[in-house]
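Protocol step 4 of 6: structure prediction from sequence.
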Amino acid sequence: MKLLFVHNKYGKRSGEEIMLDRIVALLRERGHEVDTWFADSAQITGTAGKLRAAVSGIRSPSAMQAIAKRIADDRPDIVQVQNLFPLISPAVLPVIAEAGVPIVMRLSNYRLVCPNGLFLSHGKVCEACTGGREWNCVAKNCEEDLFKSAAYAARNAFARKRGYYRDNVTRYYAQTQFQRGKLIDEGYPADRIDVIPNMIEVAEDAPAWTPGSFVGFVGRLSPEKGIETLFAAARRTPDIAYRLAGSMGEYEGRTDIPANVELFGNLGPEELAAFYREAAMIVTPSIWYEGFPGVVIEAMRHTRPVVVSDIGGLPELVGGGESGMLVPPGDDAALATAIGALMRDPARRKVLGEAGFARVKREYTNDLYYNRLMATYDKALAMRHSTSARRTG
């Protein structure tokens, strides 16, 4: 199969883009011809660049012309799209569809129904822009930058009113049932939305279980990740060590971090693998819906029990508590209680850790991802042939 992947990079590498690279690599390993057509937001500089990006996010004639030429020259069987803002724009979708090429869209966030893609405003879950009310992104100044909030609102509203996504994407695939449900709530067709959870490389046998010695967190240190909740839980459990690995952002240099919390910053692959092995558990105390944080299945691959917020798609990742504990988002007392109980009970940690590894092998392997993606591609191709038959009949 010949595939073309279209994506606008964010400027800073994210888990979303790491997974995109894995998908491309997996397809190439399985013998498919995969080309990429990427734009990069890192190229946006200065006021003039931001103004051009605001305009191109609504409609980019240059991107439309470029994709039309690429389709005509290469004739891919399928185009897979991910993020199209701000340099490509959803206006390329009808160009691809009119060329007779099916479009499969991977939904890595909530951007189709929320201007900032997060359902998050000023540190709290927010769905004010649903139902065609994108102007709320400006009224609430969700990006804490009126120009940026207005640009986000405008491009989403324009794409919705023109039906760019709904009328041109052949099939969508979400990462969780929760995410799929949010799109259906906004009127996207349920029969065209598949669910394909993320993947991870899994060994045949589980690694030898060890009790570990600290509570670990892996990821970007930012408020929506529940860092303040985690700090508050650490203050409630001063006898437990906490170690946080990931880009520190606004937390770098903070002087009010609890004494039992250590910030490690970004770790290399080998250091990070050791971090997982030596942790007693991994916590993901997010206060937003999340997409599909790879840290959860990475922890499970290492037989580490996980403690996650009971919000969005996170409960699905751990089988509703099969391989970890669920706590209310933003509740530091509940988080501290769950952490304390697990630290005092290594036998329970072992049970949860081994259940997590079994769940990863059952639900999140590369082979499963490939088979699910091929099923989605087959449906997209069948829909193209069906549409072509109706047009010529």
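Step 5 (inspection) to follow. Residues 383 and 389 are 10 Å apart (CA to CA).
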